[in-house]
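Re: that chain you flagged

S.,

Sorry for the slow reply, it's been a week of failed gels. I finally had a moment to sit down with the sequence you sent. For the record, here it is as I used it:
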Amino acid sequence: MTSFQKLFELAVRNIGSEELLEASLPRAKSAAQLETIGDDRYLSMMTRCIFRAGFVWRVIDNKWPGFEAAFAQFNPLAVAHFSDERLEELAQDTAIVRNFTKIVAVRHNAVLVLDRQCSDGSFASFIAQWPPDDIVGLWLELKKRGCRLGGNSGPMMLRSMGKDTFLMTKDVTDALINHGFIDKFSINSQRDLHLVQGVFNHLSQQSGRSLAEVSRILALTV
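Prediction finished late last night. Pasting the structure tokens below so you have them in one place:
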């Protein structure tokens, strides 16, 4: 297996300089910072990542003001009480992308947010307090309790909000295989997920860097 120092040097060579590499690295927020974010923003980003999946991101981002208006600024209590008729109306709303199954998922995930408010005080607190050394456990919890948050949608939401997480993009997967850390990977295999968590924990401890930084450095070695 390749040492972190070798990975870092390869990433620097590929991007052009150590300064450019450092500037490109994602910065995770602290637990305290994550807890200050409103639960409506978590539901908003959850929804954005779900609608982006399998679609042109630019189209979703350009329509986002329409999404905010259509879903009551993502107030979890309001969205959780959207009637079936309201969801059907949204499926005809040209201000958003009219994918009915994804529209229904927003209401389901609003209920998830409310459930975590009851159990943890806020959805933000639930996310903030989850330990990074078991981030795949959080991925699995979001997939199990939420709707359409499997694959990279849940992890992308977490990264976008500032939660320290790695991403299993094709570049990261290829890097882990090419450098001898794993033989194969399936996002649907809990065994593979926990094995990769161990690899990232090791590289994070070895380097003193966050999971998000290690993830980007790995991607840049490809």
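What I noticed first: Residues 108 and 147 are 6 Å apart (CA to CA).

Talk soon,
D.
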